[in-house]
Amino acid sequence: MSKLRQQLDTAKDAYTSAKYPGDLVADLRRREGFSPWRLLLPLAPFAAIAAVIALVVMLMPEPPTKQIGIDTVALNPPAQTDVVDALLPEAMAMPSDAVTSMPAETLTVPSMTSVPSMPTIPTWSVSTDVSLDESNQG
Amino acid sequence: VTDQTILDARSGNRTARDQLVRSLQDVWYRFCLGLLRNDNAALDATQETALRFLRDLSKFDGRSSIKTWSLGIALNVTREMRRGRPAAGDEETPDREDPGESPVRHAEKNEAVEVVRQLLADLPERQREALVLRFFEDLSVDETAAAMKAAPGTVKATVHQALKALKKRFERS
Known about the structure:
The structure holds 2 protein chains of 2 kinds.
Chain A: H1 3-17, H2 24-33, H3 44-59, H4 81-87, H5 132-137
Chain B: H1 3-10, H2 14-36, H3 39-56, H4 66-84, H5 103-122, H6 125-136, H7 141-148, H8 152-172
């Protein structure tokens, strides 16, 4: 056996003894499982809390307008008719008979006596067995 | 690995796919290590090979063995990695020591491995690939041709040229 052959065989032994260090399947799972979104995972609880706070603020009813001074003006004042009615004395109330009722009036639509009929259109028939030449001659 | 395992893996059976990957992980790793001569690069190449292997498994038509077919994928990966990184030199990984080996034998073995490694490193890329597949992986000419996507005649000629160059360089050294 030549020296080169011996060297090659020794190198082949070393070559075939090489083993993958670890479990390739597990390494692949780790590699495939990695996603840039996973970097944001620790921030998820904070994001959830922020979302809940935002929701609560959005759903919270607006506080009533406090009339502290002249400067405080309600932009959309509530209808105060009930309050006014309650505060007004009875004498100032509008009598119920003051409201005039609508006169009962019968509305009649003039009826038409009759609709004139359309004039009659004269009918004519086309003879199909008369050729164009014959009609020209005639 | 049985044919049934391959069929199951092709149809997406996870257990079969895992079994297939585990049965080939050492083949891919040593092949990538043999061509890239760097532990970390070989690890990356092995994982990339496995991902592509699983991705393309449905395309496996059974014309060659699953090992040969997967070595073709590994070959492409190592070629891409070699193109993407500087030629191996100072970054080569030293041999791991076998604790059960005598220091003298270990030194001799290391020397032999280093000599062959250096001789292989000096060969053109195609010759080195053909020699690793044919001699180190014990593939037949046809299997080597299938993995390299080359004609069997081309593989024969390439291996012959590689051995001739190896012998010449060995004698010179």
